[in-house]
Each structure stands twice: as structure tokens, then as C-alpha cells.
Amino acid sequence: MPIGNALLGAMLFGRPLRCEDYYSERVVLNEESLWYGGPTRRENPDSAKSIAEVRQLLLEGRIKDAEYLADTNLTAAPRNGSPYQTLGELVFTSHREHDPVKNYRRELDLETGLATISYEWSGGRVSMRAFCSAVDQVLAIEIAADCTGGLDFHVYLRRRPFDGRVFRSGESMVGFNGQAGPDGVEFATALHGAFVDGRMHTSGQCLVFEKTTSVTLLVAASSTWRVAKPKKDCLKTLAKASRQDFDTLLNRHVDDFSSQFRTVSLSIGKEPRAFTDLRLDAVKNGKGDASLAALQFQFGRYLMLSSSRPGSLPTTLQGIWCDSMTPIWNCNYTLNVNLQMSYWPAESAGLPDCHRPLFDFLQRLVERGRITARSMYGCRGFVAHHTSDIWADSTPTGGVYASALWPMGGAWLALHTWDHYTFGLDQAFLKNVAYPILREAALFFEDYLIKNARGQLVAAPSVSPENWFVMPDGTRAKMCAGAAMDSQVLRSLFEALLEASVVLGSDEKKRACWARILKKLPATDLDESGRIREWVEPYREYDPGHRHLSHLFAVFPGNHISPLNPDSSLAKAAKFGLLEKLRQATDLTGWSQAWMANMFARLLDGEEAWKCLRRIQTKFTHESLLGDCPPLNLDGNFGFTSAVAEMLLQSHRGEIHILPALPKAWPEGEVRGLRARGGFTVSMEWKKGRAERVEVHSAAGASLRIRSASRLSCSGMVGEPIPCSGGFVIEATVPADATLVLTRLGS
What we know:
Immunoglobulin-like, 31 strands, alpha+beta, Beta-galactosidase, Chain A, domain 5, single chain, 13-stranded antiparallel sheet, Glycosyltransferase, 3 domains, globular
């Protein structure tokens, strides 16, 4: 069970405190800034003199020659960055044998962030309660027992094989400090025992407890990422926290956590009175449980609030619940979908402040990306490729065959700032944060794009992450001069920049340049089979069931392809392509199914979106509800939450669409607090698949269009509901800080 306060994370496994194997319980610990090594300059010194030749080879169709040259002269030096690393573990060991454990139970309260483990043994009941407090910056664990003789156990911190330097303070505190590799951050973590009913003393690096019936354990961690003296900071944090008992710390934590989590509530049908693991097993065996989707929706929100808060770093692939020194994919920031997916639900699902760590990171990425843009490509602006790290590395990590040379990472991330603005309409944010980032991203492509034989502006070199195409000679390749995703991302980027410049009254003379670039970007096109073409050139896809859906960016998270557009042919082609990928089923992953669910929701197909979510439940969800790529990846959880929100509410076409992709499996329900673009918050109830009551709160005051399958009415409407395909469109005006209430008319 994961708990966290964004800076400090803990994973509880729930093993009883009894003699068993090497240890009893272990709690995996993470401090968000522990990346191995320090900042490096990894730009390849041969890039600038090679880029023109690589481009020429691509334009001539000599793809293999271009890839070979790029693999040596354009990729980063050294090729690979350093990994994020776990802080270590809190290990509990007991030497006493006891009767078998009975009535074992563990639970995680999503509204409070409190994890509880309890069981009966040795004539009594043992319980462990734990939470990570953002208010007091500690992991707090209370152990209580009324069993015969109390509990005998010891507990210690370890970080194998890098345990660092152990320190002790009196008879109640142990810890260690060290450094995360050469030039890496220095860090410290400490464990403090307080409010002990029994005997406690230190021995070696352990806190030892004898005949204990209750104790509060506090863990703090710190690094030079934020403070000059981590050990001193840990001791100060623990000294302050230890003056409060467990319940006081808990109440302070709950007040903070719950006030943010409870902004959105969701109920779908009747929730079974059964344990979550049994419910998940039942779903995997074909049983229906629509309300499990509501629980997973909230679990994604819980993970976001636990791992990403103002002032923290963004969420990594495994977040602050990584358990390795060499985690898969370095537990890094993967910019070709995974980092973005981790923040898809931030706005719609009511946690906009959780989005801010991404913007702080982006501002550092702009600074670092300017260096890469200038030294690698001779371009202005900033560029970032497909991975990054705590130091905001922007170079092409890995080799060409790992899709390193994809220059769209920064541009895609920049669009998150525009999304944040469109939901909240914060003009200060637009002026000071979003617009400078959007402008710097666009500036790079003003210089980077080149003309192909058709006179189109294309990105070269580039790839369509992380897919292969088949060359005319039958071999496969990845590098290209223009992928569909490039044009779709850039169309969104330059349109956002143009709109933002008008809102702010800025860069009037630049708008003509940006408009010319938009006009020369390749249009989204179809291949011979009737699917969206993935590359500008008519290449055949090597793996039709590939996990990435890059060429459908314009469906989601983009907004240019919609079945509600006057010409819906692209939407039909996109849906056909998605169904073909599912038919091939060669490369399914949890996060890919989550992306697909969001796309089907945008294509207004609730049944296919629900099938994707069910596929996640049956194939890519652990018993704890954590997502499985495989292995553990959090992006699937966040993508799931985003998909549920998109199925219930959409707002990307200048209107609020009520229940746009509601599946038959969700005939009734209620949601409160979903956010829509334009500064609106929406709550609604539905029965028999139709909206019965809708409340729209406006923060800024505005006119709006509402689309719904139900015929809705209220006194604030402008005119009567207008019939349209699939329902009605109505117009209304909501004053600032007021709520419009709409109810269903007729059957």
C-alpha cells in the first residue's frame, strides 16, 4: 500500500511482526530527489557538424545511412543518463514465535491517506497505522498491541548496498547519511521512537523494543536538493514532530489531505460490500462491478495527491514508491507519453495544484533545453527529447533504435501549461509561466523545421515513438523526416501560442510567422487501409499492434479529430485504426490501454472505452490497484482516472459535453467537482444513462454551450434546447461565482 507526501514515500507490505524468515515487515522508503550522480553536459560535440548530412540522407530516402550516422554523431555522450534510486527500507525483525495470525486485515483510506494493518495473535490484537504527512514532513507509524507479553522487536534503516554512515542520537534515534553517487545530492534519513509503552533502547543501528504495547515511529528524510545540511534538517524535523502524539499528527495530516482529495466525489451504481482484492478477482473472472472503476478513478487521484504537490518534483514512472537502485527505465521522466499521462487528470479531476511541479520542472527544462538546441542543432528556443531526469536533462538519451532522436518532448509538455490556463483562466500564470514556455518551444521549431520535396515543413530527424516502419527493401527503420505526431503536436502548439498572444496582447508581429508555419505543416492523412497515416511518407507499419498511439495525438490529448467536427472522416479512420490495433493485440500494456480508453472517450464510444478499462482491470492491475505496465508503472493509474473523467465530461470544443461516452455498464451514478475548461466546475446525477440534474459553477462568469443527450432546462438559458445529433445543445450565462442548475425535461 503506497502512502506519500510528495517528498517522502513509503510502501507498506503488511507482514505481521513475528519471527518469519529473515525479517518480519519491511517498508520501502523514498525521498524524491535521490537520483544517482549530478548534472552533466551530455550534448554530443559532433552533432552540429552532422545534422545537415543526416537531414540530407533522410530527404534522399537513405534512412539506414541516416540512422547509422545519427547513432554515432547525434546521440548523447554518454548515451544514457543516471537512475532514480530508492532511499532504502525500514526493516522490522522479531525473534519471538507466536501462534498463527488470525483475522488479518489491511486497508488504505483514500480520503485520509491512512494505511492500517491489523491481526490477532498471541491472545490479542496487533495494529499498525501509518501515513506520510505533508504538514509535518514525516512518515508516522503507530504500532499497538494488547497481546500477552507485548511485542519484542527491533527496527532499523538500511540502504543495501549503499548504507552510508550510521549515526545515533540518544536512546531513541538512529539514522544514516550518504551521497547519491559522485556529484549527486547528499542525503540523510533518521528514525525516531516516541511515546513508548514498554522498553526502548538503541543497539548498533537498531531501535530495540521489549514488552511494548504501543510506540510511535517517525521517519524523516532530507537532501541537499533543498537544504544545505540534510542530517541537521532531519533531526530538526523529528524533534518538532515528536512533540506531538500520533493522533495529533494524524489529525493535522487528515485536515490537509482530505480537504484536497474531497474536491471530487464519484459514485457509479451500487458498491459491493467486499474486499478490494476479492472484487478485482471477481472482475478478472468475468463478474461485473462498475463501481470498481469509481474506486480506481479515486485511487489515481490519491496517487497524484500523494506524489505531486506544489514545491515537489514531478512524478516519475514508479513515483516515490520505487524499490530499486537500478530501476527499469531508470524510473525517469519519459517524455514521449508517460510523464504527460501522469498529469492528464490533474485539471479535469480537480487537482490543479498537483500540476504545478510539472511547470516548475518545465521552467528548468527550458533553461537546459536552450543549451541542447543551440549546441546540437544551431537553433534558438528550447528542445527536449524522450527522457529527462531531476537535472532537466534534454539530450537524446539512448540510441537511435531506442527512439532517442525525437525532438517533441518539450513541445508536448509545454501544452500542459496551456491546458492549465484554459481550465482556470489564470492570466498571471499565462503571462509569467505558460506563454514564455510556449514561445520558447515554438522558437526552436521556427529554426528546426525543414522543407521536404512537397514543400511541407517537417521535423528532421524525428521518429514516431517508439514504432518501426518497413523500408522498400523489407528492412525496418525508425528515423524519419516528418511523423504524423510531429505535425499534430506542432499544430496544437502554434495554435495555443497564437491564442495566448491575443489574450495577452503580445507578439503581434510574430503571429504572421506562426500562421505561415501552421499552413505548411503536413495535414493528417489516411493510408491505403483507411487508417490515420503514421508517417508523412507512405511507410507500412512494422508492428500493427504497437503499444504507442502517437499518430492519434490529435484525438487525445489533442483536439483536432472529433466525430462532432463537420467532417468526421478522420474520426472514423482513427476509430478504425484503434480497433485494428486491438485486433492485432501484439503489444498491449497498461498505459497504452489507458491512452486508448481516453481516445475512445473522445470518439464518443463509451463501450470501447469501457472495454479498455476492463482490460486494464483484468490484465494490468495489481491487487493493491497499482498499475502494471508490466512492471509497476503509475501512468496507467493516472490514465485510467483521466479516461473516467473524459467519459463523464468533456470541454475541449468550446462547449461542455455532459456524459459524452457513458457505457451501458454505468446506467446510474453521481459525480461532483469535475472541472471543465473556461473556469467551470460540474456536478451531475444520471439515471438510465441520461443526465437528470446538472450543476455548473462558474468561477469567472461566462456564457457557455452545453451538449447533452438529455433535454436540459433552467431559467438562465438563452433560448430553447437545440436538437442536434445525439441530443441537444443549449446556451446559458453563468455570473461569476454562481451556479447554474439544469434539470431534465421529458422522458
